């Protein structure tokens, strides 16, 4: 399992992230504080507070999805 910190600033960012996550054949969770959402759920992510830095847990590997994570990564 790998963990990354990301920031999604707009609905277009959420859509791009969910599209990339949906192509993966493993579970991906996204959360902040105690809110845990399936990263393949666009409505779930849009219901989160997007002003916060989000944590992503990947339970597998996919090079294309890793590039998407790097695009939205925060230091």
UniProtKB/TrEMBL annotation:
User: From which residue to which does the signal peptide run?
Assistant: none
Give the domain of life. Answer: Bacteria
Per the UniProt entry, what species is this protein from, by scientific name?
A: Blautia difficilis
Give the matching InterPro entries: HPr-like (IPR000032), HPr-like_sf (IPR035895)
A Pfam match: PTS-HPr
Q: Supply the Gene3D superfamilies for this chain.
A: HPr-like
Protein name, please? HPr family phosphocarrier protein
Domain HPr stretches? 15-63
């Amino acid at each position: 399992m790998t963990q990354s910190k990301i920031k999604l600033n707009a609905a277009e960012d959420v859509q791009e992230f969910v599209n990339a996550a949906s192509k993966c054949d493993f579970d991906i969770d996204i959360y902040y504080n105690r809110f845990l959402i399936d990263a393949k759920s666009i409505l779930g992510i849009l219901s989160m507070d997007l002003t916060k830095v989000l944590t992503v847990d990947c339970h597998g590997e996919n090079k294309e999805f890793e590039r998407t994570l790097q695009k939205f990564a925060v230091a």
